[in-house]
Amino acid sequence: MTERAKDEALIRETVARAARAWDAHDAAAYAAEFTEDSDYVAFDGTLLRGREANRALHADLFATVLHGTRMVVEIESVRFLADDVAVLHALGSVVFAWQRDVPASRQSRNTWVLVRIGANWQVAAFQNTRVRPVPNSGPVPELFGRYVRWRTGRAARG
Known about the structure:
Helix content is 37%, strand content 35%.
């Protein structure tokens, strides 16, 4: 196995540990996979700065609205930006105890930026975005397109 393949395996294991910590509702273990100064952008746009903010929010969420959830992560790609920096893209979401699969309306795409710290990899930045394709056909997009073109024309005329 090449060094790059070993690093990719370690990166995938970092994400797997984060998912296992989520499934155990262990906010401290989940946040431990992130760097001390990590950035975390949730699907609703909430920005957390630092491991402690990550831990505190997830402890609250695991006790309330995300109680009993499990994390589903399907890694799409891992790309190395440098020897010690990688970006990972994944599809994923959380599944509530009464659900079998992720509902299509809650599917998210995640971007994870991981950095090597010693022999380990940690998450330096995380972005979670709902998968919501922009509708580009049908009456609503057509009417909105007309409106945008009309407003753009008016703005150009002063």
